[in-house]
C-alpha cells in the first residue's frame, strides 16, 4: 500500500533496506517483487546483484520472476503503438431562436403539469387525505422562472454566461438564497424537459457538458454517468466521439483532464464507462497521450486521488489497456506480475492484454517450474491458451518430476492439446495407479458431504468394468481443479466411458450437488418454528399496527404464522458452491435431462446466483443441442443480470469455437426430439419397429409397423431383447420431454425475431428452419416476408413444403433474398385483411398474433415515452401476474427494497422495454398501484439512460410493447386520483 502514497525514490530506498535487513524469506521475496514494480527496469542491476549471494529458494524464485519481467520489458522496447487516426473536430455551433422557442414550450408544459398536480393536491387535502405539499412547492419554484431566465439558459448553453458557483460549506438559508437568485435547479429542469433540445443536430458535446454542469452543485467527477449525458450520448453517432475530443471540450470548460480519465478508471456503481459505449479506437489514444493515468491505475506511481473512493481501479485500468493494440513496454512487467500472480481477480484480463506479446511463451514456461502449485497451474493453462507447442518437451520433463496430481492432470491436458500422444497415461492401469495415489491424500473439505458410495458402477467403451476408485478420484480431482466449465483431461476421461456410464456418472454428481445446495428445513420444522414464535411476533405486529395502521392494519395472526413458517423453510442449510468444480463432470448427461434439471433449479432457487452460474458453466461443456438452447434462452432473458451476462459469455464462447454467430448457433442447434427431416422417428425393437411423429395437437404420436396409431409402446416379447426395448422406451420418453422444451423455446425465439425484425438468408431459413421437423411445423402458423431489393412478398409455408401467397398461388423464393416475419406494423390495411381471411379459410391458429397490434400514434417521433395508460390502476399482485404472463420481469430493487418498473430485454436488438408503475417493496405486498409510462432503453446505456426516441425503436417492437402496455392496463381501470392513492 505504500506505493500509493510514497514517492518512487523513497519507496525504492525503503524496499532495498527491507530486503537487506530482513531475515524472513517471505518478506525479502515481497520486497524484491515490490521494488521491481516500483522502479521497473531501473531495479534490474540491483536485483541481479542481490541474486548472486541469495540462497533462499523462495527469494530466488521471486528475484527470477522480477528479472524475467524486467527483461520482457527490455525485449519489447522495439514495439511501438500505431499512429492513431486524428480525433473528430470539436464543434461549438451557437444555439439560436429555435432552441429558445423549445425552452419556452418546455416552460409552458412544466407550468401546466405543475399547476394540475397542485390542484389535485389541493383537492386531496380538502377531501381529508394526507398531502405533503410537494406539488405546491414545485409550482411556486417554477413560477419564479421568467422569460429572462430562458435567455440566460440559452447563453449558458452557448458558453456566454457561467453559472454562479456555490462556495463549499454554504447551507441552509444562504444556499436557498443562492438558488433563488440562480434558479439553477429549475433552469436545469427546463433544459432537460422531454430532452427536446437533445435531438437538435447543433446540440453538441460542449452544450451537453454545460447543461450537465447546471445540475451539479459540487462535483463533476461523474459527468459521464449523469443520466442526461447518457441520454444525449444515445442520440449521437459514436463515430463522432473520441476521448481526445472530449478532453478538448474539458479544456475549453477549464475542467481538468483527470475528470475524463476518472470516467474510465474510477469505480462507479452505475457500471457505465466509455469502454462500454465507444469503440476501442476512441479510447486508447487519449491514454497513450497520458500514460501517467495508466501508471497510477496499475499502482506504478503514487495515487493523486484526494479521497480514497476517487482512486483509479486496477480492474478498470486493465479494461482500458485491453483497448490498446499492444501495451507499452513500461507496463509489461506489472502485467506479467498480474498474469502469473496468485491473485485470481485480474489474472485473465492481464493474460488477454499480453497475449500478442512476442516471445511470451518462454517466459510463461519459466513459471511452470514455480515452487507454488497454483502458479504452476496458471502457467500450464496459459501455455495452452497461447498454443505454445514448443513447450511440449519441457512439459514432459516436468510431468516426470511432478508429484501433485492436480498439476499432473493439467500437464497431461496440455500435452494432449499440443497433439502429443498421452495414450499410455490413459490406459486403465495407469489411470487406476494415478487414482490410488491421489486418493491417499486428505479429502477436500468442500466434498466431505459427498456420498461416494452412491456413485454408479461404470463401464469402459469396450464393456469392461471401471474400478470404483476411478470415479471417486475424478470427483476429488474435479473439486480440486475448481473449474465447473470443464478440463480437457476430465473431458478425455469421460470420453473413455461407455455413453450410458458417462451419463449416469454425471447424473449422480449433478443430483448430489443440487441436493446438497438446496437442503432446507422440512415443512414440519417450519410449522414448529412458526408455532413457537407466533405469539411474540403477533404482539409486536399489534403494537406496530396501532402506530402505523396504514402498513400493518391488514395483518392477521394467520398471516404472521405463515410468514414465520416461510421464513424458516426458506433458509438454506448447506451450500455446494465450494465444490463447483464437480460440475465439470456433468457434460455427458443427455441434454434434455440436463437442461430441465438446471432450469428447475434456476426456477426454485433463483437467489443462488453463484450456483446457477456454475451450473450454466457445467452445462456449457455439453455439445447437446438441448443444453445449448437453454443457455441461449438464459442469455436472452433472465431475472438476474449477472446470470444473463454469464450465459451470454458462454454462448459467445461456444459460437466462437464453432465459427458461428450466436444467432447462427441458435438456429443450428435446435433439438429434433429424435425426429428426422421427414418428421418421423424410428423406435427399434429389433424384430419390429415403431415410429413417432408430431401430431396436429403438437404432441408426439406413436404408430406401429402397420402405421396404425397406438397409445403406448408395448412390452418386450419373449424373443425380443429386453435391453433394446428399454432403450426404445427411454428414447420415446426423452423425445416427449425434449419436444415440449423445443416448442416453448422456439416459439419465444420466433416471437423475438419478429419484434427485432430479424432477417435470414434464404438458404439458412430453408435449411435450419423450414426443413426442421419441429420448427418447420411452427413456421406454417406464421406469415413471412421475402425481401429482395425493393420488392416485398408475403407468404405462408404449408405442410407439403410449398409457399403460398394470399391468393393461394405458390411462389418460389429468390436465392438472393432475405426472409423475415410479417407484422401489422409493416403491412397495409388491405394486406392485413387479405391475410386474416387466408388464416380463417385454412383454419390456421397463429403461433402468436401478427396482424392485431398496430403502431401507436407517436411512432416515428422524438418522444421518449408513451403514457396513454398512465393512471390505470389495480393492485400490485394483479399487475405482477399480467406482467409475468407477458414475459416481463421486475427491475432490481433500489434503496429500501423498492422497485418501480417491469422490463423485458431484447438482447439481439440491444433494447430493454420498460413499463413504469408506482412501485412496490420487497418482500412484495398487495397494495394499490398505478401504471405510469412505457419507454425503451438501450441496454448498453444501462439504467441511467432516459428512454430512446420512439423513432429509433424497431416498429414491430414498438407496436408489441405498446400492446403489452395496454394489456397490462386492462387488468385494472383508470383512477383520476391515482397519484394520491398509491402508498408509495
Secondary structure blueprint with pairings:
Layout: H1 8-21, H2 25-39, H3 44-52, H4 57-75, H5 97-126, H6 134-142, H7 147-157, H8 172-182, H9 184-192, H10 205-214, H11 227-234, H12 243-252, H13 257-265, H14 274-277, H15 284-289, H16 291-298, H17 314-321, H18 332-339, H19 347-354, H20 360-367, H21 373-386, H22 392-401, H23 405-417, H24 428-439, H25 469-481, H26 488-495, H27 499-517, H28 523-547, H29 549-552, H30 557-569, H31 591-604, H32 609-619, H33 625-636, H34 641-658, H35 662-668, E1 680-684, E2 689-694, E3 700-703, E4 709-710, H36 722-755, E5 760-761, H37 762-770, H38 775-779, E6 784-788, E7 791-797, E8 803-804, E9 818-821, H39 829-841, E10 872-875, H40 876-885, E11 889-890, E12 898-906, E13 911-921, E14 928-938, H41 955-969, E15 973-974, H42 978-981
Helix pairs in contact: 1-2, 2-4, 3-4, 4-18, 5-6, 5-7, 18-19, 20-21, 21-23, 22-23, 24-25, 28-30, 31-32, 31-33, 32-34, 33-34, 33-36
Describe this structure in words.
The protein is α+β, with helices and mostly antiparallel strands. It has 42 helices and 15 strands. The strands form three sheets. It has a six-stranded antiparallel sheet with strand order 11-12-13-14-10-15. A five-stranded antiparallel sheet has the order 5-9-6-7-8. A hairpin with a 5-residue loop joins β3 and β4. The chain starts with 7 loop residues before the first helix and ends with a helix. The model has no long low-confidence stretch (mean pLDDT 88).
Amino acid at each position: 500500500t505504500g506505493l500509493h502514497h510514497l514517492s518512487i525514490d523513497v519507496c525504492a530506498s525503503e524496499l532495498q533496506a527491507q530486503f537487506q535487513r530482513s531475515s524472513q524469506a517471505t518478506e525479502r521475496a515481497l520486497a524484491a517483487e515490490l521494488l521491481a514494480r516500483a522502479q521497473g527496469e531501473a531495479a534490474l542491476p540491483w536485483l541481479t546483484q542481490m541474486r548472486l549471494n541469495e540462497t533462499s529458494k523462495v527469494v530466488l524464485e521471486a528475484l527470477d520472476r522480477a528479472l524475467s519481467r524486467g527483461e520482457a520489458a527490455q525485449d519489447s522496447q522495439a514495439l511501438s503503438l500505431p499512429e492513431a487516426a486524428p480525433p473528430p473536430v470539436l464543434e461549438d455551433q451557437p444555439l439560436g431562436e429555435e432552441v429558445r422557442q423549445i425552452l419556452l414550450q418546455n416552460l409552458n408544459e412544466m407550468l401546466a403539469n405543475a399547476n394540475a398536480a397542485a390542484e389535485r393536491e389541493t383537492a386531496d387535502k380538502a377531501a381529508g387525505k394526507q398531502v405533503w405539499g410537494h406539488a405546491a412547492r414545485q409550482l411556486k419554484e417554477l413560477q419564479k422562472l421568467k422569460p429572462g431566465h430562458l435567455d440566460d439558459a440559452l447563453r449558458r448553453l452557448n458558453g456566454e454566461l457561467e453559472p454562479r458557483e456555490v462556495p463549499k460549506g454554504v447551507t441552509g438559508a444562504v444556499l436557498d438564497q443562492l438558488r433563488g437568485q440562480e434558479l439553477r435547479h429549475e433552469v436545469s429542469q427546463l433544459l432537460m424537459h422531454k430532452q427536446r433540445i437533445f435531438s437538435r443536430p447543433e446540440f453538441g458535446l460542449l452544450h451537453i457538458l454545460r447543461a450537465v454542469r447546471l445540475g451539479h452543485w459540487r462535483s463533476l467527477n461523474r459527468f459521464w454517468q449523469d443520466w442526461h449525458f447518457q441520454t444525449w450520448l444515445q442520440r449521437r453517432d459514436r463515430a463522432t466521439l473520441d476521448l481526445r475530443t472530449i478532453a478538448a471540450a474539458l479544456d475549453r470548460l477549464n475542467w481538468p483532464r483527470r475528470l475524463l480519465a476518472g470516467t474510465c478508471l474510477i469505480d462507479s456503481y452505475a457500471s457505465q464507462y466509455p469502454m462500454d459505449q465507444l469503440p476501442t479506437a476512441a479510447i486508447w489514444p487519449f491514454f497513450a497521450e497520458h500514460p501517467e493515468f495508466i501508471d497510477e491505475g496499475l499502482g506504478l506511481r503514487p495515487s493523486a486521488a484526494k479521497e480514497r473512493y476517487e482512486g483509479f481501479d486496477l480492474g478498470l485500468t486493465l479494461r482500458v489497456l485491453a483497448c490498446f493494440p499492444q501495451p507499452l513496454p513500461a507496463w509489461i512487467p506489472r502485467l506479467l506480475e498480474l498474469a502469473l500472480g496468485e491473485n485470481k481477480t485480474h489474472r485473465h484480463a492481464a493474460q488477454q492484454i499480453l497475449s500478442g506479446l512476442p516471445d511470451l511463451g518462454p517466459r510463461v514456461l519459466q513459471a511452470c517450474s514455480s515452487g507454488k502449485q497454483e502458479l504452476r497451474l496458471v502457467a500450464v493453462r496459459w501455455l495452452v491458451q497461447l498454443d505454445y507447442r514448443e513447450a511440449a518437451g519441457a512439459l514432459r520433463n516436468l510431468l516426470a518430476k511432478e508429484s501433485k496430481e492436480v498439476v499432473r492432470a493439467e500437464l497431461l491436458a496440455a500435452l494432449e492439446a499440443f497433439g502429443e500422444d498421452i495414450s499410455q497415461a490413459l490406459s486403465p492401469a495407469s489411470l487406476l495407479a494415478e487414482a490410488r495415489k491421489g486418493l491417499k491424500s486428505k479429502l477436500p473439505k468442500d466434498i466431505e458431504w459427498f456420498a461416494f458410495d452412491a456413485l454408479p458402477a461404470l463401464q469402459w467403451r469396450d464393456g469392461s468394468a471401471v474400478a470404483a476408485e476411478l470415479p471417486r478420484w475424478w470427483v476429488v480431482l474435479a473439486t480440486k481443479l475448481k473449474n465447473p466449465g470443464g478440463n480437457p483431461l476430465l473431458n478425455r476421461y469421460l470420453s473413455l466411458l461407455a455413453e450410458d456410464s458417462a451419463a449416469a456418472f454425471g447424473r449422480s454428481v449433478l443430483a448430489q450437488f443440487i441436493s446438497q445446495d438446496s437442503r432446507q428445513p422440512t415443512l414440519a420444522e417450519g410449522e414448529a418454528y412458526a408455532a413457537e414464535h407466533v405469539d411474540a411476533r403477533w404482539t409486536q405486529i399489534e403494537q406496530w399496527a396501532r402506530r402505523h395502521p396504514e402498513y400493518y392494519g391488514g395483518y392477521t395472526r394467520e398471516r404472521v404464522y405463515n410468514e414465520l413458517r416461510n421464513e424458516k423453510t426458506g433458509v438454506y442449510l448447506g451450500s455446494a458452491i465450494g465444490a463447483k468444480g464437480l460440475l465439470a463432470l456433468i457434460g455427458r448427461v443427455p441434454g434434455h435431462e440436463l437442461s430441465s434439471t438446471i432450469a428447475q433449479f434456476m426456477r426454485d432457487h433463483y437467489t443462488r446466483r453463484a450456483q446457477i452460474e456454475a451450473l450454466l458453466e457445467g452445462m456449457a461443456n455439453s455439445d447437446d443441442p438441448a443444453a445449448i438452447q437453454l443457455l441461449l434462452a438464459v442469455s436472452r432473458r433472465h431475472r438476474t443480470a449477472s446470470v444473463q451476462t454469464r450465459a451470454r459469455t458462454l454462448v459467445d464462447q461456444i459460437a466462437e469455437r464453432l465459427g458461428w454467430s450466436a444467432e447462427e448457433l441458435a438456429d443450428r442447434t435446435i433439438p429434433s426430439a429424435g425426429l428426422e427431416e421427414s418428421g418421423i422417428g424410428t423406435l427399434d425393437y429389433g424384430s419390429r419397429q415403431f415410429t413417432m411423429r408430431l401430431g396436429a395437437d403438437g404432441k408426439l404420436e406413436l404408430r406401429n409397423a402397420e402405421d396404425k396409431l397406438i397409445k403406448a409402446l408395448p412390452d418386450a416379447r419373449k424373443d425380443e431383447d429386453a435391453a433394446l426395448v428399454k432403450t426404445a422406451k427411454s428414447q420415446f420418453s426423452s423425445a416427449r420431454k425434449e419436444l415440449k422444451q423445443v416448442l416453448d423455446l422456439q416459439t419465444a425465439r420466433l416471437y423475438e425475431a419478429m419484434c427485432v425484425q430479424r432477417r435470414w438468408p434464404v438458404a439458412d431459413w430453408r435449411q435450419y428452419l423450414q426443413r426442421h421437423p419441429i420448427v418447420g411445423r411452427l413456421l406454417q402458423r406464421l406469415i413471412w416476408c421475402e425481401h429482395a431489393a425493393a420488392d416485398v412478398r408475403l407468404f405462408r409455408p404449408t405442410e407439403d413444403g410449398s409457399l403460398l401467397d394470399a391468393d393461394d398461388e405458390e411462389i418460389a423464393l429468390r436465392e438472393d433474398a432475405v426472409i423475415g416475419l410479417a407484422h401489422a406494423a409493416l403491412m397495409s390495411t388491405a394486406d392485413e385483411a387479405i391475410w386474416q381471411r387466408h388464416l380463417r379459410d385454412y383454419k390456421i391458429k397463429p403461433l402468436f398474433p401478427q396482424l392485431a397490434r398496430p403502431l401507436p400514434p407517436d411512432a416515428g417521433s422524438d418522444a421518449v415515452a408513451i403514457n396513454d395508460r398512465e393512471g390505470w390502476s389495480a393492485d400490485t399482485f394483479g399487475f405482477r401476474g399480467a406482467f409475468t404472463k407477458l414475459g416481463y420481469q421486475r427491475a432490481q430493487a433500489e434503496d429500501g427494497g423498492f422497485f418501480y418498473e417491469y422490463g423485458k430485454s431484447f438482447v439481439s436488438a440491444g433494447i430493454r422495454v420498460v413499463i413504469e408503475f408506482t412501485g412496490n417493496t420487497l418482500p412484495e405486498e398487495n397494495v394499490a398501484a398505478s401504471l405510469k409510462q412505457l419507454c425503451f432503453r438501450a441496454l448498453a446505456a444501462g439504467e441511467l439512460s432516459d428512454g430512446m426516441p420512439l423513432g429509433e425503436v424497431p416498429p414491430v417492437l414498438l407496436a408489441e410493447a405498446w400492446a403489452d402496455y395496454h394489456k397490462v392496463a386492462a387488468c385494472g381501470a383508470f383512477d383520476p386520483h391515482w397519484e394520491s392513492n398509491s402508498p408509495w
